[in-house]
Design goal:
alpha/beta; VOC_core; Lactoylglutathione lyase related lyase; Glyas_Fos-R_dOase_dom; GlyoxalaseI/FosfomycinResist
Length: about 130
């Protein structure tokens, strides 16, 4: 099997509209529509889907849980701009800036949580 990319991730959230708005506003991710009016956000060549635990989009993981996700996204802005932007949106930085090893090498990361407490690493590669 020749797997080379991730197409999408689905986050289980308490309020889909709130999550879409947060990811759109805080991370400037475009809102997309698919599957009979469902919405998500575009992240580069991938997308984030959202579902609520009481109305999951089947098939679903065995234990769809709100706030259980932990993933990294990559930003290209200067670190100072990222920190300023998060401050302007009143997004608390949980950790960082710290040096981490990303899929493409060393990067500087800051960690934040979305409204459902999912942990999001915002990484910035130096090159």
């Amino acid at each position: 099997m020749n797997i080379r990319n991730i197409d999408h991730l689905t986050l289980t959230v308490s309020d889909i509209e709130r999550s879409i708005r947060w990811y759109h506003e805080v991370f400037d991710l475009p809102i997309i529509e698919f599957d009979d009016g469902r919405q998500g956000v575009k992240v580069g060549k991938q997308k984030l889907n959202f579902q609520q635990s009481d109305t999951p989009h089947l098939p679903v993981a065995n234990h769809p849980t709100i706030g259980a996700a932990d993933f990294a996204i990559i930003a290209t802005d200067p670190l100072a701009n990222i920190l300023s932007h998060l401050t302007n949106y009143a997004v608390e930085i949980v950790d960082g800036p710290v040096t981490k090893q990303g899929a493409l090498g060393p990067m500087t990361s800051v960690y934040v949580r979305d409204p459902d407490e999912n942990l999001i690493e915002i990484g910035k590669y130096e090159k």
